[in-house]
Structure formats: structure tokens, C-alpha cells
């Protein structure tokens, strides 16, 4: 079966979001809009098969104006281990600069990885048939997304900020995105798990919003900085 270069669209929204800037370590400060890595994670929460496919985010449409809110949150300043954690002893209050009342349309392509191109560890538990094709995964995603099914709850940057979402099947007659141009500067693109799965390096790109639309380059593009 021939490969189909199909693009999918999801509309996501929520009361709060925080797409944390990695250069600010102590207190969370969000980017102005959702990052490609956060958009990818939303698609993966609906369907993800390791070694067999990956998601390539292609476009982000900003639907609501960018609004900020500063809040103070309780966080735990310790990592869980063999010894129990007494939260009252490890509690820390930190400021967070969050996004409020966000809504986006995110677009992505399902990139199928042929059986012959998969690493040996992909066949440890399951040996796929040699004629496996992308249509299998297209149909799985469309069925799950149309029924509102997901393996994990999608979130907007932080797990406590759950995302509402819906599958946009017909993209021909949609409301226009935010009528605003903005240079968003250098933004986190994603983590390079393919080069170093144990300790991935961060990838960045120059994000520009033109009339509410952000075009996301391919991960192998020269626009992506490693």
C-alpha cells in the first residue's frame, strides 16, 4: 500500500498552561505559546507505538490572545526514593508565570517507520509482519481520536494543567486564528532522543507567529539548532 502523507489536526484548550523555559531553573516561566514538543506529546497521548511511528508537528495556530498570570505554588523540593518524603519538611513555595485561557489548533503528520529501518530491540517482544504499512496506524489514530480516546490525559506543559481536546476532521471551514504577528525568539523545539536516548540534548528553533500561525520546521531541517 502506498504511503499517504496525511496531516491531522487537534484543537486543544484549557484554563492554565505553562510551557517552561529551560533557561530558568528555579521558578517556572512559560513561553508565549505552546512548544512543538508539548504539541507532539498531545498527539502521543492518543496514539504512540515506539519504533513503528513518530509524530512530526507541522503547524500551530493560536486562537486566543496571549494572557499571563503570576501565581505562587507549593512544590516538593526532593525526589522520591527508598525513604519516605515528609511533604511538610520539603515543601517549597515558588512563583510561576503562567498562560491563562489558552486555545490552539495543532497539526502533525504521522511518520511511519518501515520494519526494515527499525532497531533490533524493536523485535524483542513482537515480530511485525513484513507488509506492515502506515494505513494501520492512520486508522488506529482516526478511530481513537474521533471517539475521544487517549492512553494518558493530555496536558498543557505541566501535568496539573489538563488539556481539553477534540479531533478536527474537516479543516476546510475553521475560524481564523489570532490576527497578530509576533517574533517569539528562540524556542525549545524538542529533545533529541534518537541521537542519545539516555541523555538527550535539547533542540531549538526561531519561532515566528504570522497572523496567529506558527510554521514548525521538520526536525532534520537546518532551521533546527542542536
Automatic annotation (TrEMBL):
CRISPR (clustered regularly interspaced short palindromic repeat) is an adaptive immune system that provides protection against mobile genetic elements (viruses, transposable elements and conjugative plasmids). CRISPR clusters contain spacers, sequences complementary to antecedent mobile elements, and target invading nucleic acids. CRISPR clusters are transcribed and processed into CRISPR RNA (crRNA). Gene3D superfamilies: 3.30.70.2660. Belongs to the CRISPR-associated protein Cas5 family. Subtype I-C/Dvulg subfamily. This is pre-crRNA processing endonuclease. The keyword rRNA processing does not apply. InterPro entries: CRISPR-assoc_prot_Cas5, CRISPR-assoc_prot_Cas5_N, CRISPR-assoc_prot_Cas5d. Keywords: Antiviral defense, Endonuclease, Hydrolase, Nuclease, RNA-binding. The keyword Hydrolase applies. GO terms for molecular function: endonuclease activity; hydrolase activity; RNA binding. Pfam families: Cas_Cas5d (PF09704). Its EC number is 3.1.-.-. GO terms for biological process: defense response to virus; maintenance of CRISPR repeat elements. NCBIfam families: cas_Cas5d, CRISPR_cas5.
Amino acid at each position: 500500500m502506498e504511503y499517504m502523507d496525511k496531516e491531522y489536526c487537534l484543537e486543544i484548550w484549557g484554563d492554565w498552561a505553562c510551557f517552561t523555559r529551560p533557561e530558568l531553573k528555579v521558578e517556572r516561566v512559560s513561553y508565549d505559546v505552546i512548544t512543538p514538543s508539548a504539541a507532539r506529546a498531545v498527539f502521543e497521548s492518543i496514539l504512540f507505538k515506539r519504533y513503528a511511528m513518530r509524530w512530526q508537528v507541522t503547524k500551530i495556530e493560536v486562537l486566543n490572545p496571549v494572557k499571563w498570570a503570576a501565581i505562587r505554588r507549593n512544590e516538593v523540593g526532593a525526589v522520591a526514593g527508598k525513604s519516605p518524603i515528609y511533604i511538610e519538611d520539603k515543601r517549597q513555595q515558588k512563583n510561576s508565570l503562567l498562560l491563562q485561557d489558552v486555545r490552539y489548533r495543532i497539526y502533525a503528520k504521522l511518520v511511519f517507520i518501515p520494519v526494515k529501518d527499525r532497531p533490533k530491540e524493536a523485535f524483542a517482544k513482537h515480530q511485525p509482519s513484513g507488509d506492515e504499512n502506515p494505513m494501520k496506524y492512520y486508522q488506529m489514530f482516526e478511530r481513537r481520536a474521533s471517539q475521544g480516546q487517549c492512553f494518558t490525559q493530555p496536558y498543557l506543559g505541566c501535568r496539573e494543567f489538563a488539556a481539553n481536546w477534540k479531533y478536527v476532521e474537516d479543516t476546510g471551514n475553521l475560524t481564523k486564528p489570532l490576527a497578530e504577528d509576533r517574533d517569539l525568539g528562540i524556542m525549545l523545539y524538542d529533545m533529541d532522543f534518537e541521537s542519545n536516548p539516555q541523555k538527550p540534548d535539547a533542540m531549538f528553533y526561531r519561532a515566528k507567529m504570522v497572523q496567529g500561525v506558527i510554521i514548525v520546521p521538520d526536525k532534520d531541517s537546518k532551521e533546527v539548532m542542536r
